Structure formats: C-alpha cells, structure tokens
Amino acid sequence: MAERIISQSNGYEKLLCYKKARVIYDLTYHFCQRFIDKKDRTFDQMVQAARSGKQNIVEGAVDGASSCEMALKLTNVARGSLRELLEDYRDYLRVRGLNEWASDSKEVDAMRKLGVENQEPEYFLGLAATRSDEVVANMVIVLLCQADTLIKRYLDYIEKRFTQEGGIKERLYMARTKHRGY
C-alpha cells in the first residue's frame, strides 16, 4: 500500500490532554454556574477559556494530519487558554481570601492521583457537587497543572513527528517524485 500523504489521526478522543481538557471544561462550566454571577464578565471568560483549551486540542489534532505547523500552533493556543484559566482560578481564590493548596500538600497529592486514575467528567462533577468553591477551584487548579504537563508532552511528540516524517510539502514532493520514478 502506498504511503499516505495526509497522516491518519488516531483520534483526538484518545489524547490524554484532550480528556483532561474535557474534564476541565465541564468542571469550569459547573463551577461558574454555582459560584460566579452570570452577569460577571469572569463567568464568560472562564467558560470560554476552558472551551478554547479543549476545542483547540481537537482542531490541532485534526489539522495536524496535514500540517505539523498548525498542530503546534493550535495546541499551543490550547495551552495558553488553559494557562489563562489557571490564572482565573488563582485570582478567584486570592481576591476572596481563600487558600490555594500548597503543591506539596496531601490534598494536591490526592487530587493528582485522582487526576491520573480518572478521565471522565462525571466522576469529577460528582466530587465537585458537594464541595465548596475553594475546594472545587483547587481541584481544577491541580487538573490544569496536569493538563499543562500533558500538552507540553504532546507538543514534544508533534515536533518529533515533524522531524521524522517532515511536513506535507515534503510528503507531497516525495510522493510525486516516486510516482514519476525519479
């Protein structure tokens, strides 16, 4: 079988960074519904940053089938959106005099473990339903930090794939010259 010019994607749904971003979006949507006034501009900003993080991973993975450059750009946009959201959660805690969990706390350790073991939004929504705004914000902060690490790893993978396989222009040229028998 001939080598494909446009890579076949394994599906963005399988990407851990996508799964994490989906959890973050759902938690953020419900966090904002419960704890932020809908008239507050922060409500829309947080929901849109979470959505942008998830959706740009999707678009980057799909566009990455033909362009590593687009995959890198869009995935990095996703990372930027989720970093913006991280700051929103930290601001939420700070301006309300609430505590952010220390990175070496037992709460962060427990949440990191849950974040590794669970990828379904429903699981985290069940936990968040009975927790305070301080706890839910901290839960999402931990998940956002995990998502950032996963996205950085995914960006490294895309770069490595590009150096090994080249871009679409290179693949088009190689296919055409092979077809011509050069």
Outline the secondary-structure elements.
Layout: H1 16-35, H2 41-63, H3 68-95, H4 106-117, H5 121-128, H6 133-165, H7 168-180
Helix pairs in contact: 1-2, 1-5, 1-6, 2-3, 3-6, 4-6
Put the structure in a nutshell:
With 182 residues, the chain is an all-alpha fold. It has helices at residues 16-35, 41-63, 68-95, 106-117, 121-128, 133-165, 168-180.
Question: What oligomeric state best describes the polypeptide chains here?
Answer: single chain
What is the strand tally?
A: 0
Give the uncertain stretches in residue-range form: none
Share of helix, binned: over 70%
Q: Distance between termini?
A: 19 Å
The structural domain count equals 1
Reported for the largest beta sheet, the result is: none
- Succession of helices and strands: HHHHHHH
- Find the structural class using helix and strand composition: mainly alpha
Give the C-alpha Rg. Answer: 19 Å
Shape: elongated
Key words describing this protein structure:
182 residues, mainly alpha, single chain
Please explain how this structure is put together.
Helix 1 runs parallel beside helix 5 (121-128), helix 3 (68-95) runs antiparallel to helix 6 and helix 4 (106-117) packs across helix 6 (133-165). The mean pLDDT is 90. The protein has one domain. It is mainly alpha-helical and 182 residues long. It has seven helices and no strands.
